[in-house]
């Protein structure tokens, strides 16, 4: 196939993860070490990249993604914004550990100020494994970032030949290659035969259409997650509030239901000024406002379809703008 006349300029920002991992042998697929291979070696392992884009790499950090902090997100988003403001950069690919890929992608979806493509990619097998998925995933991600069809679609997550939206994608399996899915709402499309094929798009606002500006931020408001379960107690909640949490995501059972013994403590925390968002540990579906709790009386916010870890990101960013629960609730319906 003839190469396109003018290749897009794509910057690969490497952050670590299994895609940059190495194991003791070619059959080691668990128990390997993440974040050991540098960005130039990742690029050199896929000479086919040269056919689809002019690529250059930057090592932003080199960690397993479970160790990511808010500061890493701020650093990464700022770098993406600087690069995308340059006329000689057409798109960004971020190589990333898969454990928190959905969180980083959603953070960028809300804070990148450009319609140019941003694709977050990872792998489930380390670079040293037989049939490692990193090289094909990286190839597909660069192809996607260089594709005109990816412009204005928000931040994308691409593994396993599939394209998912940052807001909706989630890791559904601890270890299989097809772990990234958008249950029910569905993926956006496929990458096949050297082309991105799009079939749908999220209706929620992203990138240039959000109100969030992290350009001058060095810290984010403290927001923590309290997990719901039968026989839940208030110990974790109280500890987070005492430690200075400005917001709490309650990962309730079912439709964000509140156990009798947690409802009172959550209401007390709200009276102290802490913003409470009712989310759900279920992972699919809407947490309905005034459904399993009287949110109007309690002055709580509900998470819509965001899972707890993504609700945490939106609340952190929301709290950089307002502490008004009505305004925050609106954010959960538009982002
Ligand atoms: N498949 C992976 O990338 C997981 C490796 C590691 N736990 C990480 O998230 O960085």
From TrEMBL:
List of residues binding substrate: 65, 98-99
Ranges of residues in domain L-asparaginase N-terminal: 9-202
Record-linked PANTHER family: 60 KDA LYSOPHOSPHOLIPASE, L-ASPARAGINASE
Residues of the active site: 18 (o-isoaspartyl threonine intermediate), 18, 98
GO molecular function: asparaginase activity
Pfam families the UniProt entry points to: Asparaginase, Asparaginase_C
Keyword Transferase among record annotations: no
Sorted UniProt keywords: Hydrolase, Signal
Span of domain Asparaginase/glutaminase C-terminal: 222-332
Alphabetical list of InterPro entries matching this protein: AsnASE_II, Asp/glu_Ase-like_sf, Asparaginase/glutaminase-like, Asparaginase/glutaminase_AS1, Asparaginase/glutaminase_AS2, Asparaginase_C, L-asparaginase_C, L-asparaginase_N
One GO term of the biological process aspect: asparagine metabolic process
Family: Belongs to the asparaginase 1 family.
Keyword Hydrolase: yes
Protein name stated in the entry: L-asparaginase, type II
Source species: Solimicrobium silvestre
Lineage: Bacteria, Pseudomonadati, Pseudomonadota, Betaproteobacteria, Burkholderiales
CDD domains attached to this UniProt entry: L-asparaginase_II
């Amino acid at each position: 196939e003839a190469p396109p006349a003018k290749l897009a300029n794509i910057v690969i920002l490497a952050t670590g993860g299994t895609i940059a991992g190495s194991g003791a042998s070619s059959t080691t697929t668990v128990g390997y070490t993440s974040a050991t291979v540098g960005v130039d070696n990742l690029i050199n392992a896929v000479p086919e990249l040269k056919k689809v884009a002019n690529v250059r790499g930057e090592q932003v950090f080199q960690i397993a993604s479970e160790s990511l902090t808010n500061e890493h997100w701020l650093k990464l988003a700022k770098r993406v914004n600087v690069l995308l403001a340059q006329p000689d950069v057409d798109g960004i690919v971020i190589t990333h550990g898969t454990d928190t890929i959905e969180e980083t992608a959603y953070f960028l979806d809300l804070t990148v100020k450009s319609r140019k493509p941003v694709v977050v990619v990872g792998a489930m097998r380390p670079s040293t494994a037989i049939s490692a998925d990193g090289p094909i995933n990286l190839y597909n991600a660069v192809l996607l970032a260089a594709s005109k069809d990816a412009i204005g679609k928000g931040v994308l997550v691409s593994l396993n030949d599939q394209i998912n939206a940052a807001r909706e994608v989630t890791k559904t399996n601890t270890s299989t290659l097809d772990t990234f899915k958008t249950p029910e709402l569905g993926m956006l499309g496929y990458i096949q035969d050297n082309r991105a094929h799009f079939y749908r798009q999220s209706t929620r606002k992203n990138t240039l259409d959000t109100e969030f500006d992290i350009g001058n931020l060095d810290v984010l408001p403290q927001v923590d997650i309290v997990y719901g379960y039968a026989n839940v107690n208030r110990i974790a909640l109280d500890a987070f509030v005492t430690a200075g949490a400005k917001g709490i995501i309650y990962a309730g059972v079912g439709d964000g239901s509140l156990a009798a013994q947690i409802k009172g403590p959550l209401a007390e925390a709200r009276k102290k000024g802490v913003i409470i968002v009712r989310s759900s540990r279920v992972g699919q579906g809407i947490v309905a406002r005034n459904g399993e709790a009287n949110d109007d009386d309690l002055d709580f916010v509900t998470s819509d379809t965001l899972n707890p870890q993504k609700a945490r990101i939106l609340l952190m960013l929301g709290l950089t703008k307002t502490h008004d629960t009505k305004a925050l609730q609106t954010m959960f319906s538009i982002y």
